[in-house]
Design a protein that fits this description.
This protein has one domain: Gcn5-related N-acetyltransferase (GNAT) (Aminopeptidase, 3-Layer(aba) Sandwich), CATH 3.40.630.30. It contains four helices and eight strands, in the order ββααβββαβαββ. An eight-stranded mixed β-sheet has the order 1-2-3-4-5-6-8-7, with helices on both faces. By secondary structure, the chain is α+β, with helices and mostly antiparallel strands. The radius of gyration is 16 Å and the shape is globular.
Length: 187
């Protein structure tokens, strides 16, 4: 699904631009995936695992997402550089099409500027515009208090825990928490 591009002002006064991804973004997205993987333990990949991402693979992903009617990807740019990505997707299956899965990740230099909030507002708008979606879902890793605070601010609540779901290189085991945000609709 192609989203309508939009701009907004960051807390520091700079402008951010958000749109669906295109082929011209692939080299920078590949770099973003690598850099974001090394900035925090809360992304589900290490930088050395990013070799599996290729230009052809990202092109296929972008083409599929942009043509889909049940998913969208948002790329946020600040001063022409990718600041972060977010996405939303939902099943076409009769029993699960009411559930939309969302995810977001920003490069560290763009944390605390209002980007996460604005991207979530757009993901919520997409979900609310689809009458079949009744809830949005996401997961976060134990210790990611910044993300949890954002998710709670956006109306998500913890619905479950997967004990020891993530194992770091040093052997540390971390829980993964599932969160849900209900979409309230008029009866």
């Amino acid at each position: 699904m192609i989203i309508e591009a939009f701009e907004f002002t960051l807390k520091d006064g700079r402008k951010a631009f958000v749109r669906s991804p295109g082929d011209e973004d692939i080299p920078e997205v590949l770099d973003y995936l690598y850099v974001s993987s090394g900035e925090t333990e809360f992304v589900l990949r290490y930088p050395e695992e990013c070799g599996k991402y290729t230009w052809e693979g990202e092109k296929a992903l972008f083409d599929r997402v942009n043509a889909a009617d049940n998913e969208a990807m948002l790329v946020c740019f600040v001063e022409g550089k990718i600041a972060g990505l977010s996405n939303i997707a939902w099943s076409k299956g009769l029993k699960t099409r009411h559930r939309a899965s969302v995810a977001i990740a920003l490069l560290r230099e763009y944390w605390n500027l209002g980007i996460g909030t604005r991207l979530f507002e757009e993901l919520i708008r997409i979900a609310e515009d689809n009458p079949q979606i009744l809830q949005m879902e996401l997961d976060f890793i134990e210790g990611n208090s910044r993300a949890r605070a954002l998710y709670e601010k956006m109306g998500f609540r913890i619905a479950g825990v997967k004990p020891d779901a993530v194992r770091l290189k040093d052997g540390t085991l971390l829980n993964e928490y599932s969160m849900v945000r209900k979409i309230h609709r008029e009866a």
